[in-house]
Amino acid sequence: MFxxxxxxxxxxxxxxxxxxxxxxxxxxxLLSKKxxxxxxxxxxxxxxxxxxxxYIDPHVRESKCDTILELNPxxxxxxxxLLDREKQFRKIILLESMEHFMPRLQELHTxxxxxxxxxxxxxxxxxxxxYMDKMDNGSRVAELLNDVPQKAYRDDANMLVFGAVGSYxxxxxxxxxxxxxxxxxxxxxxxxxxxxxxPIYIHLTxxxxxxxxxxxxxxxxxxILFEHRFIAKVPREHLLPHQADxxxxxxxxxxxxxxxxxxxxxxxxxxxxxNLHDLCPPDDLSALWFFIKQNFxxxxxxxxxxxxxxxxxxxxxxxxxxxxxxxxxxIYPDESVKKLPPYSRQSTNMSSRDYxxxxxxxxxxxxxxxxxxxTLFTQFRQWPEYQESSFLASLENALLKLETVNDxxxxxxxxxxTEEDDxxxxxxxxxxxxxxxxx
Length: 439
Known about the structure:
Structural class: alpha/beta
Helix content: 40-55%
Strand order of the largest sheet: 4-3-2-5-6-9-7
Shape: globular
Mean pLDDT: 85
């Protein structure tokens, strides 16, 4: 009992120290309440801002963007480093979701009226604005991103986005933005450098040998659509709000992922692939999205039986493959594989001719890496029966449901016709519930 009291007293004392240290800059609700999975996080002090700046410096220098958008700059610890880059960043856009920080940020706009633009808005929930625009034909997203330069998709990135995000739904919206050519990526291929909880990054970039609980349709889509790179680990304790205590139970299906680097956030960079439309024409992106979503509903889905539901008798074409596969190579050859987070995959080029060797009646979709999944869809799309297949009718029904679904999480549920295994329905939801507590 004495040990428990002493432990509790130490925790209370630590919390008081935190409140006293930051009380003059941050609102009480960011200091006193811990959260398991905060969707918004703030750089808490100048020391960690300096450390982050040193980590991303080589990546920022190689960027050709002259516009940067910072999410939730708060008191501006990191913003000061952006202001120092006068030669590179002609425009700095600050999007802040808390009213508390607006007066201080407005002072920056007053000091740099042409260079610094400030908006009271929540970029992490951009998908909500996009949905409302779709419902009433509004222009909320366009108004919010009015200061963002617009470029053609194949051009260089139109801006750089920096921030700390713990929302799984935010990343799903980025995927949907590319697939349906709306919202943020309708303005160009903006690149992002974000601090994210380890479970989210591992889920998005994992290898298929981790198992189907994490290697899901979102993993495959993200790796097809984006180039990604791990930069560094950032101590979680230096970002607010602080992380709530979380104990991994023995029965937790995601225990091994929740136990990875609980004391850190992953600083990562990603950008949409410039050659995406060469790999998959824009008009076929929604079909690719639906093909992957449907076939990854269950971890027991086998390739040939499932594809034959749409094109009967196609199995022999997949088994007897006479084409030679193109090689898949890392995009960043200087990246150390040993320094990558556990289970995550090094970003590689994508090919529509990366054939899985030796497909048979037992081969499952989870056996395919993202490039092989893209190749399978390309084959399926090129078959003469495609235009008359039931696949297109199912796709049309799914797209019609998009008009009535107002939640990106429910969007996936609405198109999943069956959930055959015991974890398929909860896997993606459980990822969203994982706190930044993980190895």
